[in-house]
Design a protein that fits this description.
Elements (H helix, E strand, L loop, with lengths): L1 E2 L32 H13 L8 H12 L9 E6 L9 E9 L3 E2 L16 H14 L12 H17 L13 E8 L7
Antiparallel strand pairs: 1-2, 2-5, 3-4, 3-5
Amino acid sequence: MILDGPRDSRTAYNPKYRGTYRSHPTHCGELSDDSEINELFFWFLEEGGELGVVHNSAKAFRFAQLWNSRIAGNSRFEVIEATDSNRPESGGQFIGVDLSAGYNNSLLSCGLKLCSEVSHLAASIGELCGLVSRHFSPELNESGLFQNFEIASFCLRSMIALQDLSPNLFEGGDLREFQCVSLYALELEIGKK
């Protein structure tokens, strides 16, 4: 995956978060469709589809490098391996474990902070939400993700149980679509194509 900062600026977002719910690179409207960056964008769309998962790391690195040379500030695309286990193929640097649905959504992007609507819930549900937040928020690492699979899995099971008691509490739909996903940062290989 090729990911950068927040995907949606309207939602609560943890600025440290480096999980799956981040923005993908886009078409560069300032350049022609036959420029290298836009040719790589069309490759990204074709190979990555809706999930944005690509398999050619050389092209992914080059696409990230081209976008990183065009953007200013703290924004920076990185190439990430996402795996449903603790065994990366890439040998990348471990970032953490996200609670992700289809590599396109996350229960951790807000940092497990309680929303203001919690005061409108039944008192028992509000207390349980507070318990989940107080117990699991300190377990998030410097990337806003869990440091190990077991704690991530326990948090997900707890959130599923809570949402079974109060539908749509954390997310619309069934939280069983979410899974623990280990993320690894690949080093950007400058100069390689």
